[in-house]
Amino acid sequence: xxxxxxxxxxxxxxxxxxxxxxxxxxxxxxxxxxxxxxxxxxxxxxxxxxxxxxxxxxxxxxxxxxxxxxxxxxxxxxxxxxxxxxxxxxxxxxxxxxxxxxxxxxxxxxxxxxxxxxxxxxxxxxxxxxxxxxxxxxxxxxxxxxxxxxxxxxxxxxxxxxxxxxxxxxxxxxxxxxxxxxxxxxxxxxxxxxxxxxxxxxxxxxxxxxxxxxxxxxxxxxxxxxxxxxxxxxxxxxxxxxxxxxxxxxxxxxxxxxxxxxxxxx
Length: 266
Known about the structure:
266 residues, 38% helix, globular
């Protein structure tokens, strides 16, 4: 059997629900060999679950990437938390240097429960140098509004407009996720390829835990591309995967819960 390989350049969520932990669990569940270049370690304070961030040095990140790309090789890659403009530029330079294909950019700019850009200089760099290098980009509605230069992205028409603006910036395919930030009864995802819109609207799952859902979804798309699927087929498989993971989500403690990456079977 062919070995399908994927790299994630992402942070570590010590609680295991998001970040590179979610990425690697997703890769494994979907039959892809996963590798990670770690950008930051995020720990949670057990008393109130406040997040504490401990960045990894740029030289160490660069050596991790070199180990993976030059030492082993990859079929697809994704990004997660990129905490500085310098790191964003390193990722862009890496894509160019190695002519990497099947690049999935998950533009992590906001955390659940927070509606403000976490690291403005990194967000600006993502907009400037990574959007145009993305074969697929997967912003939520807040991130899409920032990238598209819009005040808000809430309605279906606004999602479509944002997708078109982002695609015109150079992204191959744009997938905008409304998820829990949408006030309606349905979770709406929109795929835009520069010509056609594919709208996927499904009734929201009640009572589930969605910590790490965005990471898991983009990792599932990456896994599909690593296996040779088309973007549309990879997206459809990713949608199946995240739906099962959310339906089987579980509580971790009084502060948080996690999606279950182990229940999906193709």
